[in-house]
Design goal:
Length: 306
Amino acid sequence: MSGKYCLFSILIMGIMNLPCQAQQKNSLEHLKEKISERLAAEKGFFAIAFKDLQTGETIFQNEHSLFHPASTMKTPVMVEAFKEAAENELSFSDSILLKNEFMSIADSSFFSLDSTNDSEKDLYQHLGEKRSISQLLYKMITISSNFSTNLLVEKLGASRITETMHDLGLGEMQVLRGVEDNKAYDKGLNSVTTAYDLMLLFENLGNGQLVSAQASAEMIRILEDQRFNEIIPAELPLRVKVAHKTGSFPGVHHDSGLVILPDGRKYVLVLLSKDLKDEKSATRAMADISAMIYKYVHRQKHAMHY
Protein backbone atom coordinates (compact mmCIF):
# COMPACT_ATOMS: atom_id res chain seq x y z
CA MET A 1 0.00 0.00 0.00
CA SER A 2 2.83 2.37 0.86
CA GLY A 3 4.30 1.99 -2.65
CA LYS A 4 0.92 2.69 -4.27
CA TYR A 5 0.38 5.64 -1.94
CA CYS A 6 3.77 7.06 -2.84
CA LEU A 7 3.06 6.72 -6.58
CA PHE A 8 -0.37 8.32 -6.10
CA SER A 9 1.21 11.23 -4.23
CA ILE A 10 3.75 11.79 -7.00
CA LEU A 11 0.98 11.83 -9.60
CA ILE A 12 -1.08 14.31 -7.57
CA MET A 13 1.92 16.60 -7.08
CA GLY A 14 2.63 16.46 -10.81
CA ILE A 15 -0.93 17.43 -11.70
CA MET A 16 -0.87 20.26 -9.14
CA ASN A 17 2.32 21.61 -10.72
CA LEU A 18 0.94 21.64 -14.27
CA PRO A 19 -0.61 25.12 -14.03
CA CYS A 20 2.69 26.49 -12.69
CA GLN A 21 4.63 24.85 -15.50
CA ALA A 22 2.15 26.14 -18.07
CA GLN A 23 2.30 29.60 -16.51
CA GLN A 24 6.10 29.56 -16.70
CA LYS A 25 5.99 28.48 -20.34
CA ASN A 26 3.47 31.25 -21.12
CA SER A 27 5.20 33.93 -19.04
CA LEU A 28 6.27 37.26 -20.45
CA GLU A 29 9.86 36.61 -19.44
CA HIS A 30 9.85 33.33 -21.34
CA LEU A 31 8.53 35.17 -24.41
CA LYS A 32 11.29 37.77 -24.12
CA GLU A 33 13.89 35.00 -23.99
CA LYS A 34 12.47 33.34 -27.11
CA ILE A 35 12.47 36.66 -28.97
CA SER A 36 16.08 37.34 -28.00
CA GLU A 37 17.09 33.87 -29.14
CA ARG A 38 15.35 34.36 -32.50
CA LEU A 39 17.02 37.71 -33.16
CA ALA A 40 20.44 36.44 -32.08
CA ALA A 41 20.51 34.37 -35.26
CA GLU A 42 20.23 37.49 -37.45
CA LYS A 43 22.89 39.99 -38.50
CA GLY A 44 21.58 43.49 -37.99
CA PHE A 45 20.28 45.90 -35.36
CA PHE A 46 16.70 45.55 -34.14
CA ALA A 47 14.26 47.44 -31.95
CA ILE A 48 10.98 46.16 -30.50
CA ALA A 49 8.12 47.90 -28.75
CA PHE A 50 5.07 45.83 -27.77
CA LYS A 51 2.17 46.88 -25.57
CA ASP A 52 -1.00 44.98 -24.73
CA LEU A 53 -3.70 47.64 -24.52
CA GLN A 54 -5.77 45.52 -22.11
CA THR A 55 -3.17 44.30 -19.62
CA GLY A 56 -0.54 47.00 -20.07
CA GLU A 57 2.17 44.36 -20.50
CA THR A 58 5.15 45.51 -22.55
CA ILE A 59 8.24 44.18 -24.26
CA PHE A 60 11.02 46.59 -25.15
CA GLN A 61 14.34 46.19 -26.91
CA ASN A 62 16.39 49.18 -28.07
CA GLU A 63 13.11 51.09 -27.95
CA HIS A 64 14.75 54.52 -27.73
CA SER A 65 17.37 53.91 -30.43
CA LEU A 66 17.07 56.26 -33.38
CA PHE A 67 16.19 54.85 -36.81
CA HIS A 68 15.61 56.31 -40.22
CA PRO A 69 11.83 55.82 -40.35
CA ALA A 70 11.64 54.95 -44.05
CA SER A 71 7.94 54.92 -44.96
CA THR A 72 6.70 54.58 -41.38
CA MET A 73 6.86 58.41 -41.39
CA LYS A 74 3.80 58.36 -43.62
CA THR A 75 1.56 57.54 -40.64
CA PRO A 76 2.38 60.87 -38.93
CA VAL A 77 1.66 62.62 -42.24
CA MET A 78 -1.81 61.03 -42.26
CA VAL A 79 -2.39 62.02 -38.63
CA GLU A 80 -1.55 65.65 -39.42
CA ALA A 81 -4.00 65.64 -42.32
CA PHE A 82 -6.79 64.34 -40.07
CA LYS A 83 -5.87 66.91 -37.41
CA GLU A 84 -6.05 69.80 -39.86
CA ALA A 85 -9.32 68.47 -41.27
CA ALA A 86 -10.76 68.35 -37.75
CA GLU A 87 -9.69 71.96 -37.27
CA ASN A 88 -11.31 72.92 -40.60
CA GLU A 89 -7.98 73.97 -42.05
CA LEU A 90 -8.50 71.64 -45.00
CA SER A 91 -11.07 69.30 -46.48
CA PHE A 92 -10.32 65.79 -47.71
CA SER A 93 -12.15 66.75 -50.89
CA ASP A 94 -9.63 69.53 -51.58
CA SER A 95 -7.51 68.85 -54.66
CA ILE A 96 -3.74 68.97 -55.14
CA LEU A 97 -2.05 69.46 -58.51
CA LEU A 98 0.09 66.52 -59.59
CA LYS A 99 3.51 68.03 -60.22
CA ASN A 100 6.74 66.08 -59.99
CA GLU A 101 8.91 68.88 -58.69
CA PHE A 102 9.94 69.30 -55.06
CA MET A 103 12.37 71.53 -53.18
CA SER A 104 15.35 69.96 -51.43
CA ILE A 105 15.80 71.03 -47.81
CA ALA A 106 19.56 70.79 -48.39
CA ASP A 107 19.96 73.75 -50.74
CA SER A 108 16.49 74.74 -52.00
CA SER A 109 17.22 73.19 -55.41
CA PHE A 110 14.47 71.20 -57.12
CA PHE A 111 14.33 67.46 -57.67
CA SER A 112 11.90 64.98 -59.19
CA LEU A 113 10.87 61.53 -58.04
CA ASP A 114 11.86 58.48 -60.06
CA SER A 115 8.75 56.39 -60.72
CA THR A 116 10.87 53.22 -60.86
CA ASN A 117 11.67 53.72 -57.16
CA ASP A 118 8.02 54.19 -56.22
CA SER A 119 5.62 51.38 -55.35
CA GLU A 120 2.83 53.41 -56.97
CA LYS A 121 3.16 54.21 -60.69
CA ASP A 122 -0.20 55.52 -61.87
CA LEU A 123 0.05 59.10 -60.61
CA TYR A 124 3.12 59.73 -62.75
CA GLN A 125 0.95 59.21 -65.84
CA HIS A 126 -1.36 62.06 -64.88
CA LEU A 127 0.91 65.07 -64.30
CA GLY A 128 -1.00 68.33 -64.54
CA GLU A 129 -4.19 66.74 -63.27
CA LYS A 130 -5.53 67.01 -59.73
CA ARG A 131 -6.26 64.43 -57.06
CA SER A 132 -8.12 64.86 -53.78
CA ILE A 133 -6.32 64.78 -50.45
CA SER A 134 -8.42 61.73 -49.59
CA GLN A 135 -7.15 59.84 -52.64
CA LEU A 136 -3.54 60.79 -51.97
CA LEU A 137 -3.78 59.76 -48.30
CA TYR A 138 -5.11 56.34 -49.22
CA LYS A 139 -2.36 55.73 -51.79
CA MET A 140 0.31 57.00 -49.38
CA ILE A 141 -0.67 54.48 -46.69
CA THR A 142 -1.92 51.42 -48.54
CA ILE A 143 0.62 51.24 -51.37
CA SER A 144 3.20 53.61 -49.85
CA SER A 145 3.09 56.11 -52.71
CA ASN A 146 6.14 58.38 -52.51
CA PHE A 147 4.57 60.84 -54.95
CA SER A 148 1.48 61.19 -52.75
CA THR A 149 3.68 61.57 -49.68
CA ASN A 150 5.72 64.45 -51.05
CA LEU A 151 2.63 66.26 -52.28
CA LEU A 152 1.03 65.93 -48.84
CA VAL A 153 4.17 66.89 -46.90
CA GLU A 154 4.45 69.98 -49.10
CA LYS A 155 0.79 70.81 -48.41
CA LEU A 156 0.87 70.16 -44.65
CA GLY A 157 4.40 71.21 -43.76
CA ALA A 158 7.03 68.91 -42.23
CA SER A 159 7.49 71.22 -39.23
CA ARG A 160 3.77 71.11 -38.43
CA ILE A 161 3.76 67.32 -38.66
CA THR A 162 6.66 67.14 -36.22
CA GLU A 163 5.02 69.67 -33.89
CA THR A 164 1.85 67.58 -33.78
CA MET A 165 3.88 64.46 -32.94
CA HIS A 166 5.64 66.31 -30.12
CA ASP A 167 2.29 67.56 -28.81
CA LEU A 168 1.24 63.89 -28.61
CA GLY A 169 4.30 63.13 -26.48
CA LEU A 170 6.40 61.66 -29.28
CA GLY A 171 9.49 63.68 -28.44
CA GLU A 172 12.00 61.49 -30.27
CA MET A 173 10.21 61.54 -33.64
CA GLN A 174 11.02 64.12 -36.26
CA VAL A 175 9.56 64.42 -39.75
CA LEU A 176 12.11 66.61 -41.49
CA ARG A 177 11.11 66.20 -45.13
CA GLY A 178 9.42 64.07 -47.75
CA VAL A 179 11.14 61.17 -49.52
CA GLU A 180 13.90 60.83 -52.11
CA ASP A 181 15.53 64.16 -51.28
CA ASN A 182 18.94 62.69 -52.09
CA LYS A 183 20.91 65.86 -51.41
CA ALA A 184 19.41 66.06 -47.94
CA TYR A 185 20.05 62.34 -47.37
CA ASP A 186 23.72 62.73 -48.31
CA LYS A 187 24.03 65.54 -45.75
CA GLY A 188 22.36 63.45 -43.04
CA LEU A 189 19.22 65.60 -43.06
CA ASN A 190 16.80 62.78 -42.39
CA SER A 191 13.62 62.15 -40.46
CA VAL A 192 14.07 59.97 -37.38
CA THR A 193 11.91 57.79 -35.18
CA THR A 194 12.12 55.29 -32.37
CA ALA A 195 10.16 52.12 -31.74
CA TYR A 196 8.86 53.69 -28.54
CA ASP A 197 7.41 56.76 -30.25
CA LEU A 198 5.74 54.69 -32.94
CA MET A 199 4.26 52.54 -30.19
CA LEU A 200 2.83 55.64 -28.50
CA LEU A 201 1.33 56.75 -31.81
CA PHE A 202 -0.47 53.45 -32.40
CA GLU A 203 -1.45 53.21 -28.73
CA ASN A 204 -3.28 56.52 -29.07
CA LEU A 205 -4.84 55.23 -32.26
CA GLY A 206 -5.99 51.99 -30.63
CA ASN A 207 -7.50 53.89 -27.72
CA GLY A 208 -9.42 56.17 -30.08
CA GLN A 209 -7.47 59.21 -28.92
CA LEU A 210 -5.67 60.20 -32.12
CA VAL A 211 -7.43 63.43 -33.17
CA SER A 212 -10.83 61.96 -32.18
CA ALA A 213 -12.56 58.61 -31.82
CA GLN A 214 -14.09 58.97 -35.28
CA ALA A 215 -10.81 60.05 -36.89
CA SER A 216 -9.00 57.17 -35.17
CA ALA A 217 -11.54 54.69 -36.54
CA GLU A 218 -11.16 56.11 -40.06
CA MET A 219 -7.37 55.95 -39.90
CA ILE A 220 -7.53 52.36 -38.66
CA ARG A 221 -9.69 51.44 -41.66
CA ILE A 222 -7.12 52.92 -44.04
CA LEU A 223 -4.20 51.21 -42.29
CA GLU A 224 -6.04 47.87 -42.42
CA ASP A 225 -5.87 48.06 -46.22
CA GLN A 226 -2.06 47.97 -46.18
CA ARG A 227 -0.78 45.97 -49.18
CA PHE A 228 2.66 45.10 -47.78
CA ASN A 229 2.21 42.34 -45.25
CA GLU A 230 5.53 40.52 -44.93
CA ILE A 231 6.13 41.18 -41.24
CA ILE A 232 3.44 41.74 -38.58
CA PRO A 233 0.48 40.02 -40.35
CA ALA A 234 2.52 37.40 -42.25
CA GLU A 235 2.03 34.48 -39.86
CA LEU A 236 -1.16 35.57 -38.12
CA PRO A 237 -4.62 34.01 -38.67
CA LEU A 238 -6.68 35.75 -41.35
CA ARG A 239 -9.37 36.62 -38.79
CA VAL A 240 -6.88 38.88 -36.99
CA LYS A 241 -6.92 42.46 -38.27
CA VAL A 242 -3.73 44.48 -38.53
CA ALA A 243 -3.76 48.25 -39.05
CA HIS A 244 -0.15 48.98 -39.89
CA LYS A 245 2.46 50.85 -41.91
CA THR A 246 5.69 49.41 -43.18
CA GLY A 247 8.88 51.03 -44.39
CA SER A 248 11.97 49.76 -46.15
CA PHE A 249 15.03 50.53 -48.23
CA PRO A 250 18.28 48.55 -48.60
CA GLY A 251 19.41 47.30 -45.20
CA VAL A 252 16.27 48.59 -43.47
CA HIS A 253 12.87 46.95 -42.95
CA HIS A 254 10.24 48.19 -40.50
CA ASP A 255 6.66 47.46 -39.53
CA SER A 256 4.51 49.28 -37.02
CA GLY A 257 0.88 48.82 -36.18
CA LEU A 258 -2.16 47.90 -34.18
CA VAL A 259 -3.23 44.25 -33.98
CA ILE A 260 -6.95 43.67 -33.37
CA LEU A 261 -8.07 40.23 -32.23
CA PRO A 262 -11.52 38.81 -33.12
CA ASP A 263 -12.70 39.33 -29.52
CA GLY A 264 -11.82 43.03 -29.71
CA ARG A 265 -8.60 42.94 -27.70
CA LYS A 266 -5.80 45.06 -29.14
CA TYR A 267 -2.07 45.34 -28.89
CA VAL A 268 0.58 47.51 -30.50
CA LEU A 269 3.68 46.06 -32.10
CA VAL A 270 6.60 47.95 -33.63
CA LEU A 271 9.53 46.10 -35.23
CA LEU A 272 12.38 48.20 -36.60
CA SER A 273 15.64 47.05 -38.18
CA LYS A 274 18.77 48.45 -39.80
CA ASP A 275 22.22 47.34 -40.97
CA LEU A 276 20.67 44.11 -42.24
CA LYS A 277 22.96 41.67 -44.01
CA ASP A 278 20.18 39.36 -45.17
CA GLU A 279 16.88 41.22 -45.50
CA LYS A 280 14.80 38.15 -46.37
CA SER A 281 16.07 36.27 -43.34
CA ALA A 282 15.53 39.28 -41.06
CA THR A 283 12.01 39.76 -42.42
CA ARG A 284 11.18 36.13 -41.62
CA ALA A 285 12.62 36.57 -38.12
CA MET A 286 10.46 39.61 -37.46
CA ALA A 287 7.41 37.78 -38.80
CA ASP A 288 8.24 34.92 -36.43
CA ILE A 289 8.43 37.36 -33.51
CA SER A 290 5.05 38.80 -34.45
CA ALA A 291 3.61 35.26 -34.40
CA MET A 292 5.20 34.55 -30.99
CA ILE A 293 3.64 37.68 -29.54
CA TYR A 294 0.23 36.91 -31.04
CA LYS A 295 0.28 33.38 -29.60
CA TYR A 296 1.22 34.76 -26.19
CA VAL A 297 -1.61 37.33 -26.19
CA HIS A 298 -4.07 34.74 -27.50
CA ARG A 299 -3.13 32.29 -24.71
CA GLN A 300 -3.43 34.91 -22.00
CA LYS A 301 -7.22 35.04 -22.32
CA HIS A 302 -7.44 31.31 -21.67
CA ALA A 303 -4.90 31.52 -18.85
CA MET A 304 -6.97 34.20 -17.11
CA HIS A 305 -10.02 31.90 -17.21
CA TYR A 306 -8.09 28.89 -15.89
